[in-house]
Design a protein that fits this description.
By secondary structure, this protein is α/β, with parallel strands linked by helices. It has one domain (8-356): Aldolase class I (TIM Barrel), CATH 3.20.20. Helices cover 40% and strands 11% of the residues. It has an eight-stranded parallel β-sheet with strand order 3-10-9-8-7-6-5-4. Strands 1-2 form a two-stranded antiparallel sheet. The structure holds flavin mononucleotide.
Length: 366
């Protein structure tokens, strides 16, 4: 019987058939007990939408704007490492999909295609996700390369001073297939994961060896001195940290818990969003972690996100059908977004606000 692709889990199932168990577990999994991973999706379900009737919704305006950049749709292709674990075309396929979709793409530092090759693969706008290397010359070079290649912002990931303990990866002794490399570090020791021994994951060891765990707010000065690009902080959850972003001249915030892959036992992203928006004092706030339906995009934007990012959803599309799968998953979420906007009687994202959420279901954490 022909396989039907109606919702996201159809792509997840197809991807599971196509990729190795090691890759599938790496992509799906969260850290420790996966409490935050499951909370991310459950919390969206607890937020309820309000319907307004007899509104002209014959045309729905889905344009958005973030950091002064116009987006055709408020959905950004988020930072996920190692696309070649899901499809041989890897980030090239994703970048081609982004161009066809006219979507913004945030490329991971740990990509399996170099940032330069991704930049030339498509003309759609791109941001670069930065892991701060212990060797500052490497950090500096990669930021300069990203700027030179035309990336429009640097998103510094701050929720991974160490890698979250992902038990499946430890059982699988996660490492890279022989033909997949961290291409941004070609020619350097950092291009491969270290060998694994015992119950370990090669990536956990890599992060321990390479990613700086001593940076603090004060170090942002140095990053800002390297580049004219806007700096986004990715992986922030509290009002206090949002205020620090204001103090340190950060340009954008991504409320995120890394898709439940880092600190386990924290709130979901959507639960953190209102307090961050309140404290961010005009800095553009985005959100990722747990977006699985178009209605989730509506909820996040009604609570103040300027745009949202997805990780696993499009990677399942990539694993299921390559570039076409990325496009299909993206369009599926956009279709659901459009339907939800029509149902709640909101013809434009500009008009979406907290009044579209049932008051008693608004997450309210100080
Ligand atoms: C397989 C995988 C790899 C990831 N790699 C990175 C990465 O290299 N850098 C980063 O900042 N975030 C990374 N993330 C986190 C995503 O950017 C994003 O925060 C998360 O996937 C959002 O949650 P979602 O998967 O529920 O959409 C990764 C996530 C997954 C699932």
């Amino acid at each position: 019987m022909e396989e039907k692709f109606v919702n996201l889990s159809d792509y997840q199932k197809a991807s599971k058939k196509n990729v190795t168990k090691m890759a599938y577990d790496y992509i799906r999994g969260g850290s420790i007990d996966e409490l935050t991973l499951s909370r991310n999706t459950k919390a969206f379900r607890k937020i309820l939408l309000k319907q307004n009737i007899l509104v002209d919704v014959s045309s729905i305006d889905l344009r958005a704007s973030v950091l002064g950049q116009e987006l055709a749709k408020p959905l950004i292709i988020g930072a996920v490492s190692l696309h070649k674990l899901s499809h041989p075309d890897g980030e090239y396929a994703t970048a081609r999909a982004a161009e066809n979709l006219n979507a913004l793409m945030l490329l991971s530092s740990l990509s399996s295609t170099s940032l330069e090759d991704v930049a030339t693969a498509s003309s759609s706008p791109k941001w670069f996700q930065l892991y701060w290397n212990k060797d500052r010359t490497i950090t500096r070079d990669i930021v300069e390369r990203a700027e030179q290649a035309g990336y429009k912002a640097i998103a510094l990931t701050v929720d991974a001073p160490v890698l979250g303990h992902r038990e499946k990866d430890a059982y699988n002794q996660f490492t890279l297939p022989e033909d997949v490399f961290l291409e941004n570090y070609r020619g350097m020791d950092q291009m491969k994961l270290p060998g694994v021994s015992g119950s370990n994951s090669g990536l956990a060891q890599y992060v321990a060896d390479q990613i700086e765990d001593s940076i603090t707010w004060k170090d942002l000065d140095w990053l800002q001195s390297l580049t004219n690009l806007p700096i986004i902080i990715k992986g922030l959850q509290t009002a206090e940290d949002a205020k620090r972003c204001v103090d340190y001249g950060v340009n954008g915030i991504i409320v995120s818990n890394h898709g439940g892959r880092q600190l386990d036992g924290s709130l979901s992203s959507i639960e953190c969003l209102p307090r961050v928006v309140r404290a961010a004092d005009g800095i553009d706030v985005m959100l990722d972690s747990g977006i699985r339906r178009g209605s989730d995009i509506v909820k996040a934007m009604a609570l103040g996100a300027k745009a949202v990012l997805i990780g696993r959803p499009y990677i399942w599309g990539l694993g299921a059908k390559g570039q076409q799968g990325v496009e299909e998953v993206y369009n599926l979420l956009i279709k659901e977004l459009e339907i939800t906007m029509a149902m709640i009687g909101c013809p434009s994202l500009d008009q979406l606000d907290i009044s579209f959420i049932e008051e008693h279901t608004i997450p309210n954490y100080p």
